[in-house]
Amino acid sequence: MNRDDEVVAAFGDEWSRFDQSDLSQADREQAFAKYFGIFPWDRLPSASAGLDIGCGSGRWAAMVAPRVGSLICIDASPEAAKVAEQNLAHLHNCTVVVASVDSLPVAAGSMDFAYSLGVLHHVPDTQAAIRSCAETLKPGAPLLVYLYYSFENRPRWFRALWRISNVLRQTISHSPAAVRNTTCEVIASTVYWPMARAGALGSRLGAHTEGWPLSTYQHMSYYVMRTDARDRFGTRLEQRFSRAEIETMLLAAGLTDITFAEHMPYWCAVGFRAPTE
Question: Predicted confidence band at 276 (pLDDT cuts at 50, 70, 90)?
Answer without folding.
Answer: confident
